[in-house]
Amino acid sequence: DVKVTQSSRYLVKRTGEKVFLECVQDMDHENMFWYRQDPGLGLRLIYFSYDVKMKEKGDIPEGYSVSREKKERFSLILESASTNQTSMYLCASSPRQYGYTFGSGTRLTVV
Amino acid sequence: AQKITQTQPGMFVQEKEAVTLDCTYDTSDPSYGLFWYKQPSSGEMIFLIYQGSYDQQNATEGRYSLNFQKARKSANLVISASQLGDSAMYFCAMREGIDSWGKLQFGAGTQVVVTP
Predict the structure, then answer these.
(1) Which of A36, A71, B10, B23 could, after both became Cys, cross-link B111 (CB 3.0–4.6 A)?
(2) Does the beta carbon of B36 lie under 8 angstroms from any beta carbon of chain A?
């Protein structure tokens, strides 16, 4: 089975900190995605990547950046965390044109 | 504009009953795929069922079936014989076109609570 691993289940960070959320997949998938999930809003796409060093903005990229130096790893970076970035962050991977496999999520609280 | 609409924020269903979760979508692309995911309280997203826009028959997977009405742009999920373990948030999602890099757009979700 494909496995997508997110490095942290829960994180608490202070306002202004630089935050790294890591995601690793083990099935050589081309595509990787970062979403945030908020009540009543569903999942919203932050960034995605379709190849190493390639990235595309999703619907809500402001305040975030990403890095994909290796095919299996896709990192989400909050340059200067703010309280409105408190959320559940979900990473997913997929081969082209198929459904996702998700990680178990990182619940980030910014205080 | 919202591409995926789930109008039921939450619902209760009795054990062993069937439940229908509504999903409507908006796209002008003739090629698209529709997905349903389940998210229990533990947080992981579990893939349930997929329907392609060109599929002639409604998709089924065990107790899950998808009532696909293309002209109405609806893709309702039917869970038959509900179990307590079906209590979860359910998300409908759509992938548009063949050059979308596999991006999925999600609805807001429906919280289902199964009662004994």
Answers:
(1) B10
(2) no
